[in-house]
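From the methods appendix. Each design record in this collection lists the tokenized structure first, followed by the designed amino acid sequence. Records were kept in a plain field format so they could be parsed without special tools. The example shown here is representative of the layout used throughout.

RECORD:
FOLD TOKENS (165 positions):
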């Protein structure tokens, strides 16, 4: 039986943007930086945040992979890049994701995946379910070797066992 594809990436971006906005506002700021293919920055701007957006289709274009320290040192803003959020923010996003989606019928899903953040959020929200990355060849689902969540997502998948796409 083929696994269902769970397309919740844009929902996750909307929920994370709201969580980030609340967090930043509690710190008395509205500023962040986001390395993105475009969706994360769009969602952050939609909730009213002042975003420095870096990406191939953004106002700033990276010429290399930036490590977290380089991002902090260069931009001196909160790093809102997918895959770089603190666990407490991911927990908050997971709570909202579960509220938005309700109960999921199946036990296994393919999830269009870039940084792996959506899979991690879903795993936190639904620890009893299995989520596997789906790379569709789009900028949003491209595998990047430097993503900080790669090893964690691989560990989660390895614990879940093999899957058939």
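DESIGN:
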């Amino acid at each position: 039986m083929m696994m269902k594809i769970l397309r919740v990436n844009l929902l996750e971006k909307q929920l994370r943007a709201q969580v980030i906005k609340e967090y930043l506002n509690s710190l008395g700021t509205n500023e962040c930086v986001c390395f993105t293919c475009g969706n994360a920055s769009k969602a952050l701007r939609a909730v009213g945040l002042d975003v420095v957006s870096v990406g191939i289709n953004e106002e700033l274009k990276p010429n290399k992979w930036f490590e977290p320290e380089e991002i902090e040192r260069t931009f001196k803003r909160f790093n809102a890049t997918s895959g770089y959020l603190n666990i407490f923010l991911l927990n908050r996003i997971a709570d909202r994701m579960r509220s938005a989606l309700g109960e999921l019928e199946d036990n296994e899903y393919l999830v269009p995946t870039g940084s792996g953040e959506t899979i991690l959020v879903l795993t936190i929200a639904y620890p009893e379910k299995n989520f596997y990355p789906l790379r569709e060849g789009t900028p949003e689902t491209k595998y990047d070797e430097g993503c900080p969540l790669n090893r964690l997502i691989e560990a989660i998948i390895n614990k879940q066992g093999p899957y058939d796409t």
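APPENDIX NOTE: The chain has a mean pLDDT of 94.
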